[in-house]
């Protein structure tokens, strides 16, 4: 495999960390609030699905379909905004719009937070600092719980009308030992029965009883994300204080069980860059994950309105590009590509730079 264009990856890192300014018409498919990673607009950038942070004072701008940089310089990187999907204009019989239940992510991913509340979110001393999962719920833009029947109806429309190719289902952490996996099982069973062959990724915190990992696989899930966000315990305690109470060894146990159930490169975890972690230690930890068969989806932190870290700066672009290149090389050497997961954040790739780096 030939190495990626270095200049292009550096530019993508600049866009990923500094964002882009545009009008709503410039990027009709947008995402605000939720569990993160940012307020963003969805485009095809150089042919790859890409989520660009929307930043009013960014030196980069999208105007009339043209991407410009500092001082209005026209950038040689093909950009095509994702078209507003047709299913956004549909509603259930009770008047609830489909968009309140699931949204388009990237270019072909139907994504939904099936439980929009989180036991970690209730107190600031346990809430993840980058998360706004209940913001859309408080604003009345989404129901607290999405039913299997609702998700089947939306998925059918999204596949038929907009060519959706995969589904990502995440959940806030529930107080029970399943951590939200029980409802995910119900939804996955319904989706795979109604739309056989449609890949589905589930995302859940490590359940107290790992039998739920097997049940998610048996329900028909294609892949699973068990997201740790940082592999540095001190960083976890600052940024994800509630989740940090779950020891990293428990994540190891969950990842290993997930690999046993789903297979290598069907398990992934988010690793956020720019939280104060050490680059070399992060790459070393990612090397260990790759050896386990887990895809470390490294993504730059992006400040998001409504979160506890709304004023925290994004990381420097050269740092993001450097760590991404190093992790991508580990993945390429192991023969692990995000697209091969079939469904999920790594399969989509829009929020990170790994696919642009060859992984």
What do you see in this structure?
There is one protein chain. By secondary structure, this protein is of the alpha/beta class. It has helices at 6-18, 135-138, 148-162, 181-194, 211-219, 233-239, 248-262, 279-292, 317-333, 345-348; strands spanning 30-31, 40-45, 48-53, 61-63, 66-68, 79-81, 103-105, 109-113, 166-170, 200-203, 223-225, 267-273, 294-300. It has a single domain, classed as TIM Barrel (Alpha-Beta Barrel), CATH 3.20.20.70. 31% of the residues lie in helices and 16% in strands. β4 and β5 (66-68) form a beta hairpin. α3 packs across α4 (181-194) and α4 runs parallel beside α5 (211-219). The radius of gyration is 19 Å and the shape is globular. It starts with 5 loop residues before the first helix and ends in an 11-residue tail after the last helix.
Poorly predicted parts: 1-6
In what order do the strands lie side by side in the largest sheet?
7-8-9-10-11-12-13
Strand content: 15-25%
Structural class designation: alpha/beta
Class in CATH?
Alpha Beta
Gap between N and C termini = 10 Å
Shape: globular
- Domain module tally: 1
The CATH homologous superfamily is named Aldolase class I
What is the number of helical segments per DSSP (H or I, 4+ residues)? 10
CATH topology: TIM Barrel
CATH architect. name: Alpha-Beta Barrel
Mean pLDDT, all residues: 93
The value of Rg in angstroms is 19 Å
Order of helices and strands: HEEEEEEEEHHEHEHEHHEHEHH
Give the biggest beta sheet: 7 strands, mixed
Helix content: 25-40%
Count of strand segments: 13
